[in-house]
Amino acid sequence: xxxxxxxxxxxxxxxFFNFSILTGGLYxxxxxxxxxxxxxxxQIYQQMDAQAKxxxxxxxxxxxxxxxxxxxxxxxxxxxxxAAAQEADLYAQKQRQAAQQQADQIVANARTLAxxxxxxxxxxxxxxxxxxxxxAMDKLVADRTAQAYDAFLNxxxxxxxHAQQRS
Length: 167
Hints:
This protein has 167 residues and is mainly alpha-helical. It has a domain at 8-117. Helix content is 95%, strand content 0%. It has one helix at 9-166. The radius of gyration is 68 Å and the shape is rod-shaped. 0% of the residues are buried.
């Protein structure tokens, strides 16, 4: 067998066989396990990414719910504040009315007491005035009686002196 360029087909086939065994062995020993490892790792990362996205979506949903709940609580708090302010205003108004009624009652009682005290003072003044008038009348009557007696005595004395002079 004359092969041009001194090419030995047996050597070429042996090298090809050697290369295919080496390629198959490397494929089975290195490439396939590394590829499987990389695929598993990629799946794990995809699962982690999916879980992270799901967790993030849940977190966004929870955040939205929390914000909604916070808004509701703010509205409820505002309504309760308004109700409390209204209730406080009503309570303050009732307290003012009660204080006004109490003040009116105190003023009415004071007026009543003042009127009673005024009546007592007027009655006492009337009694004092009557007593003074009675004393003045007694004095006046006593003075007039004394003057009448004195005048009678004076006229009696004059009459007796008159009578003595005539005689």
